[in-house]
């Protein structure tokens, strides 16, 4: 025998709460909306609609997967970022809201106080594209720019290419496989970039086993920043001048408490200007570096 949407939700919320899930009401609504292929308001407008027995069982299965620690984004196969929907699956680093601050900081720098649209034809390099959320969002908001996005993981590149096609920006993004700047060896006649952007791995390797089981299901290489969490910053920053215009921007996401150390790396590499941007929680989240003060 089936249940109404209201009854199914009530049972799901009770179950998720018993498993100590944060926000069980929202989690249950998102899972049921996903299963039904609707938006969340539909659930309240049709609270008395009946789910079949098989439908109830499928929904219960989704709730069990979530309660076991499987990320919601992997269950739903998508994550919203910068107002766009991105496909993700197991093994792909899930886009975070804090990374939106990185994209917004780049857009603000590119606009240069000249309004809401980016008019210049910027040449952009993204290092470690993952799902492609940064490259695709920049291409979507900078319609005259071209982007080279690199990642050493073939699955990540396949996902990023798919997301670029979904947002109709694939013609302006070139995806290359390789480790950071080494990937450019496959690119003939490349020119120095106006912008280099990256959300590098910045978790200390020894801290990864202490992360939540949910986070540990994501890409290990997207999390592991080495013994002190700074390996990727050293590699990206110290070689950036070979690939960046002297007037260009190097934009990096930061882990909490890392700003001073990363600025120190940048100073030693010859960057004269360093600007830190905070996220909504007051954490130093984005570092903007320029060779010119």
Topology:
Elements: E1 3-4, H1 5-18, H2 24-36, H3 40-45, E2 50-51, H4 53-67, H5 72-76, E3 79-81, E4 84-86, H6 99-111, E5 123-127, H7 133-141, E6 146-151, H8 154-166, E7 173-177, E8 193-198, H9 213-216, H10 220-223, H11 231-240, E9 244-253, H12 259-268, E10 273-278, E11 284-290
Parallel strand pairs: 5-6, 5-8, 6-7, 8-9
Antiparallel strand pairs: 1-2, 3-4, 9-11, 10-11
Describe this structure in words.
The protein has 293 residues and is an alpha/beta fold. The protein has 2 domains: 3-68, Helicase, Ruva Protein, domain 3 (Orthogonal Bundle), CATH 1.10.8.10; 90-290, 3-Layer(aba) Sandwich (Rossmann fold). Helix content is 40%, strand content 19%. It has 12 helices and 11 strands. It has helices at residues 5-18, 24-36, 40-45, 53-67, 72-76, 99-111, 133-141, 154-166, 213-216, 220-223, 231-240, 259-268, and strands spanning 3-4, 50-51, 79-81, 84-86, 123-127, 146-151, 173-177, 193-198, 244-253, 273-278, 284-290. It has a 7-stranded mixed beta sheet, sandwiched between helices. α8 (154-166) links the parallel β6 and β7 (173-177). α1 crosses α2 (24-36), α6 (99-111) runs parallel beside α7 and α11 (231-240) runs parallel beside α12 (259-268). The longest helix is centred in the N-terminal third of the chain and has 15 residues, at 53-67. The radius of gyration is 21 Å and the shape is elongated. The termini are far apart.
